[in-house]
Amino acid sequence: MSVKTNERPGTRAVLRYCRMSSYKVREVLDLVRGVELTRAIEILDHTDRAAAEVVAKLVRSAAANAEHNDGLDPEELYVASAFADEGATLKRWRPRARGRATRIRKRTCHITVVLARMPEEKLARRRARVAAEATDRRARRVAGTRRQARATGGDTAEERPTRAVEAGAREQPQSGLSTDTVDAEAGAVGRDAPETIDAGAADETAAGIVPGSDDGDSGAVAPGEDAD
After folding, report:
1. C-alpha pair distances (Å), 129 with each of 29, 118, 134, 191
2. Which of 50, 13, 52 has its CA nearest to residue 31?
């Protein structure tokens, strides 16, 4: 014979005489029944129902009981059972036309949430999934850091040693000029020398000085003077 709903093993939390219809609460409990604890809390926090807030508080209370009273890890818990039983109904009256009265039923319910530890095979699958998500998240973070470093012109922590070695090789002092540099400078001097000499000879000729003679003792005769 199967175990009854209210006899299932686990840590439970009960809310009695909740001023809400059991039908409305059951619609919310169906969303988290059999779901992991962390996922169940996320679902309840994002559910737009009045009963979701009440059930979320009850689930957190059951998780606290499991952690402090039974010594269970909240990360390994799931919602094993969740149900709402109908409670006492408060009867009120509302006046209507022609002296009549209409009955108002204010419903209540008893909400029970049971948390239990997940099976070993399910825990193994969950650990593998968490490890894979952590690895993927780490890889994306490293890729984003490298992409940002390339965009800003900086270096990542992994590229800094290589960059330092390359910078040191470029900044080594040179002992002298290379052969190509010396040849280039010699060629430049050779090209400039004849132009300089020709310019000096042209200046001397314009001044009346014959190349190869001393200053003022040139063999040329000035105009208007007789030669000796």
Report:
1. 26, 15, 9, 77
2. 52
């208007």: which residue's tokens? 224
CATH annotation of 8-118: 3.90.470.10
pLDDT digits (tens, 9 = 90+) for 15-64: 999 999 999 999 999 999 999 999 999 999 999 999 999 999 999 999 99
Q: How far apart are CA 197 and CA 130, in angstroms?
A: 86
Q: For the segment 52-98, what is each residue's pLDDT rounded down to a tens digit?
A: 999 999 999 999 999 999 899 998 899 999 999 999 999 999 999 99
Amino acid, single-letter form, for residue 56: A
Q: Which of 40, 46, 82 is nearest to 60 (CA)?
A: 40
Question: Distance from CA of residue 76 to its chain's centroid?
Answer: 27
Q: DSSP per residue over 67-89, as a string?
A: HHTS---GGGEEEEEEEEEE---
- In this prediction the pTM is 0.58
Instruction: Tell me the three state secondary structure of residue 97.
Output: helix
Tokens for 137?
């998240």
Structure tokens at 165: 């070695």
Q: What are phi and psi of 71, to 5 degrees?
A: 70, 35
pLDDT bin (cut points 50, 70, 90) of residue 187 is: low
User: Who's near 85: CB < 8 A, 6+ residues apart?
Assistant: 22, 109, 110, 112
Report d(CA 196, CA 148) in Å as an integer. 58
Token digits of residue 151: 């965009």
